[in-house]
Structure prediction request, 177 residues.
Amino acid sequence: MSDSVETTDAVDAEVTEQAEPKNRKSLLVEEGDIAADYIEGLLDIADLGDDGAIDMDVEGDRAVVAVTGEGVDVLVGDNGEVLNALQELTRLAVLRETGERSRLMLDVAGYRAQRREVLTALGTEAADKVKASGEALSLEPMNAFERKVVHDAIAAAGLKSESDGVEPNRFIVVLPA
Prediction:
């Protein structure tokens, strides 16, 4: 009798494991939908509603909402400051609706996509410098998104890195092998 219970438990565990990714993905889609509705309302208020298009996707473990169109680049601001603030407001809107903290990524006018390319190159170049010199290298302060991209590029180059400092002056230190 205990064999059948173990088999049933194993099947139940397998079914639960298979269901979790679908449930997680549907939660991320829901986050994206809530965020898209929130952003659409803001675009209307800013009188950018007719010019902006909103695309929602799920990448890895986060919902991604992209706003494109003429005139929406004003929502990026200097060095992405307006975009970062808008992303936080959007995450709060998702939290209010779902009760769950969101890791939603918001991109406006392709700013984050372009920034990702630049930061990946920066991380690769920093790793190359550290490999050549054998000495740790500190980079300029960056926001959390930027640090994540650079950390990933350094790891892909085979080195380790760590963040140091306190916001808004938190920076990356690239460590020798």
Residues 2-109 form a domain with the GMP Synthetase; Chain A, domain 3 fold (CATH 3.30.300.20). Strands lie at 52-59, 62-69, 105-108, 137-138, 160-164, 171-175.
